[in-house]
From TrEMBL:
Pathway: Amino-acid biosynthesis; L-threonine biosynthesis; L-threonine from L-aspartate: step 4/5. Pfam families: GHMP_kinases_C, GHMP_kinases_N. This is Homoserine kinase. Belongs to the GHMP kinase family. Homoserine kinase subfamily. Its EC number is 2.7.1.39. The keyword Oxidoreductase does not apply. Catalyzes the ATP-dependent phosphorylation of L-homoserine to L-homoserine phosphate. It comes from Halorubrum tropicale. It catalyses: L-homoserine + ATP = O-phospho-L-homoserine + ADP + H(+). One of its GO terms (biological process) is threonine biosynthetic process. Keywords: Amino-acid biosynthesis, ATP-binding, Cytoplasm, Kinase, Nucleotide-binding, Threonine biosynthesis, Transferase. Transmembrane segments: none annotated.
Length: 293
């Protein structure tokens, strides 16, 4: 039996649509796998009632197929589904790392990224790897068709998750099909600023690069209260605020000393819109870890 802790992640970070990702120190899924003749999946924890246990429909089923590793699988969800915090990816990432060890498949962590991404295709229609990469590797990740680069970064974060669901599949439908040269230049500048900020563990630079003029404004419209949450977070000291993944979670970068105030301000913003929310005071963290030695 192998048990792992697979972290939530935040993809895009504004300027890095389908490319940037960050592992969060909390929350996380816990995935346990045991060899079996046929694959069975049991799901418990946050939002378990909304998650299919049929291997054809659960993200971990595609991972089992890709690694040819049938197993009895238990997923204890700490990451709520349809959150924008890489919930479906956390389970797939955890399953990939755990099954690789259980069956001694010998794949490197980087080789497991595209395998876990197959699970994302099951739920969102696209095998985007910007969530599974940080959930497997940890840190800040840059994922392209050529592979993933990662760097550890010490950046305090707040993610505020309103009590509404947005499916990634639906939120991908509002992404514009094209962008102007002006928007391209702005996005490249922001993305480069953010990447330098990650390499220097500088919350001011990371925050300055956390916006984009193309995708985020469209996604923000799907999140009631977004503008107020953003404004209040900046008022409390956030250095940058954007939609986490496809939403509805909103993510803020900040300095350690401001994190508690930023979390309270974001909760106030959602409360002002009549929406209950939960704030996680978190930071960029490690990738999937083994819990059983
Ligand atoms: N292991 C899993 N964990 C979470 N969601 C899953 C899993 N397997 C399938 N799903 C489905 O994926 C959808 C949530 O994924 P998605 O919309 O990408 O949200 P998130 O941003 O939280 O990953 C839900 O419809 C859920 O039922
Ligand atoms: N790049 C994807 C990321 C989706 O992240 P999720 O946490 O909402 O699943 C996108 O923006 O569609």
């Amino acid at each position: 039996m192998v048990t792992v802790r697979a972290p939530a992640t935040s993809a895009n970070l504004g300027s890095g649509f389908d490319v940037f990702g960050a592992a969060l120190s909390r929350p996380a899924d816990v995935v346990t796998v045991e060899k079996a003749a046929e694959t069975t999946i049991e799901v418990t924890g946050v939002g378990a009632q909304y998650i299919p246990e049929d291997p054809e429909k659960n993200t971990v089923g595609a991972v089992v197929e890709a690694l040819d590793a049938p197993a009895r699988i238990h997923i204890d969800k700490g990451v709520r589904p349809a959150s924008g915090l890489g919930s479906s990816a956390a389970s797939a990432a955890g399953a990939a790392v755990a099954l690789n060890r259980l069956y001694d498949r010998g794949r490197s962590r980087k080789e497991l990224v595209p395998i876990a991404a197959e699970g994302e295709a099951v739920v969102s229609g696209v095998a985007h790897a910007d969530n599974v990469a940080p959930s497997i590797l940890g840190g800040f990740t840059v994922t392209t068709a050529e592979g993933t680069s990662s760097v550890d970064a010490a950046i305090p974060l707040v993610v505020c998750l309103p009590d509404v669901a947005v499916s990634t599949r639906d939120a991908r439908r509002v992404v514009p099909e094209s962008a102007s040269m002006e928007d391209l230049v702005e996005t490249v500048g922001n993305a480069a600023t953010l990447a330098v900020g990650m390499c220097r563990s500088d919350p001011a630079l990371v925050g300055a690069g956390m916006s984009d003029p193309v995708v985020t404004p469209e996604r923000a419209r799907l999140i009631t209260g977004y503008d107020d949450v953003r404004e209040r977070a900046f008022g409390a000291g956030a250095t940058g605020v954007t939609v986490s993944g496809a939403g509805p979670a909103v993510i803020a970068a900040c300095r350690e000393r401001d994190r508690r105030d930023v979390a309270a301000a974001m909760l106030d913003g959602f409360a002002g819109a009549g929406i209950e929310a939960r704030a996680y005071q978190t930071r960029i963290g490690r990738g999937t870890t083994f819990l059983d030695g």
